[in-house]
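So, can you check what follows?
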Amino acid sequence: MLLQHAMQRTILGALAAIIMMMAPARAADPVFPVASRIGLVPPAGFAPTTRFAGFENPQASAAILLVAMPGEAYPELEKSLTNEMLKTRGITVATREAMTFKDGKGIFVAGPKELAGVKSYESVLIANISGITAIVSVQMIEASHATISDAVVRDAFKTVTVRQQVPESEQLAVLPYKITDLSGFHVIRSGQDGTLYLTLGPKDVVTEVEQPFMIIGVVVGEAPKPEERDKIARLAFNSAPGIKDVKIVRAEPLRIGQGPGYEIVAEAKDATSNTDVTTVQWTRFGQNAHLQMFGIARRGAWNEVFPKLRAIRDNIELR
């Protein structure tokens, strides 16, 4: 009896092992670089990097760059991704394939690249997935293409995935400064170069200033002399997009945080809808760069919005 039970256990154990061996291996999960809406299963040797949105393989001198754009951008990109256009970028197309995804489609092109006498190899995917236009570029030195082949890259491209939400903590973590209070605003988009888009309201796409929004950016450069600050601030304000019929209400120096700054408040009209708006630009000057902050809201909401914009300004800490 004991021998019979032992044999049964042995047989059952062997069957379980066989079933486990026959079961398909679980596919690796896509990896999303910090703050990126696009993720994929990277080829062996690639790991997420903090230097840009993507992955790096230092041993192969190779990188994967990820860019997310609105879904509306795809038709124009698809039309322009011709062999002739790529040739102007130094790429001779050796591979061109259509790709299909569970919730979208795309085009995969690849080929050797030569610019200014430097030879390399580049693969590009443009895809419309889940309403987002994803651009994925794999760049490597020419010698690495022997191991990071088109087939390897194609398999990685097949795993491209778009997530609908990026945690706000991730979007803020990539910035070269820290914000401790968003004053009710939420992040639309952020970048490792210091660019941050914020809005107050439920929508992420803002048209005709239907919601207040704020843009923050970093401009690298030597600290200007005190007498140059007014000119620099006004030049930056004159390039503010989407407004017309500008009337400056005040323009004056002030301290922001522990450093010198400059404030410009102006009334204007939205260039598209002629809606009356009020805007503010703050410039916070530093030793090697300055921080530019631009806020805008409809005129009727300004008295409520301005203190919130000011709170964001005063809660930015340089890292």
